[in-house]
Amino acid sequence: MALAALRPHRDDVRIAVGGLLGGVLLWTLGMRPREPAEAFVLWRASWAPLVPLAVTAACELLRRTRPRTGLLLGTAALPLDTVTVGSVVTVVLYTDLMYAAVLYGSPATARRMPWITGMLTVLGGVVPAAVGRDPQWLLLGVGVGVVAFAPAATGWVVRNHRDAAEAARLRAEQTALLAEVDRTQAVTAERARMARELHDLVAGHLSAIAIHSTAALSLDDPRTTKEALAVIRENSVEGLAEMRRLIGVLRADSADRAPAAIPTLDGLAALVEGARANGLDVRLDAGQGEVPAPVGLAAYRIVQESLTNALKHAAEGPVEVRLHRRDDSLDIRVTSPYRAGDTPRAPGSGAGIAGMRERAALLGGVLEAGPESARWTVRTTLPLAEGDSA
After folding, report:
1. Any long-range contacts for 37-43 (C-beta under 8 Å, 24+ apart)?
2. Residue 4's pLDDT band (boundaries 50, 70, 90)?
3. Which residues of the chain form CATH 3.30.565.10?
């Protein structure tokens, strides 16, 4: 990994080779910015311009991997080029090193280089002109600006655009990720809700069918068998009706249909009558007072599941259902006879109590279920304020 990080980019290799060959070609053709007789030319050997040219070309190999090092070496080679007849290619390669140092360097280097080169541009033109009292010295500042400040400023602008584009890309990816998380959570929540609805709708009817079919098979009594078959048929019809209602909610074209009726506390009397028809001795005390629709639905389902559990597990005796509306909450209490070690009359999945707890928790309420003085007690408190906002 470290060797790969130090390996020059192939485009940098092309720039270095192309710059070196171009400079050698211009040197071969005798194209140079200065003549050997000029005062600034201190190194008059014909091959002298090739030395700074080779150094700056080699620095191009570092323009991405070590941009700051490449710029420092190129800066050291540039004065060497000024004391020879010079090469235009060396200057061009140096401007690219300055541009690359800002574009690929550290954030600190990118911030400082435009300011440093800008100050050098001003000082390089103003100070010599003031000292020498010759306006022509201002051209030196222009040269510094072209060679150093202009590439640094260009690199700064390009870097800002690149960083902005990268930030926009990351924001888009984050938005897409959050949207996917929200979608997954929504699907999971909807599946859990439908699982609770399906369990509450079907479990009671199927439990009654299982219990009465067992009685019909175990007792050789035509009258008992006929009564059991009547209960089985009634629960089968009601279960199918509930399933059709649930399927209608799930269908894609359900928007074209009339909305399905949502169970409320007003339906508790009919629910209790159905439980009595299945053989339970149920006593209902529903109290008085209106509650929000989400609270009413949750209370109905909790009572429904509690009666289903009583049908499957309760011992002989009365089942009591009590609801009490307070100023800020609805209290539900369902008790049934309980004897430890009794065998259930119908198999269960164990999801009933968990589903009731989920319903209560969604509204900010609590649910407790367990044996209490020889009776199985389901105690629930549902806040009414949470129901208004649910």
Report:
1. 40/82, 40/83, 41/83, 41/84, 41/85, 42/83, 42/84, 43/80, 43/83, 43/84
2. low
3. 264-390
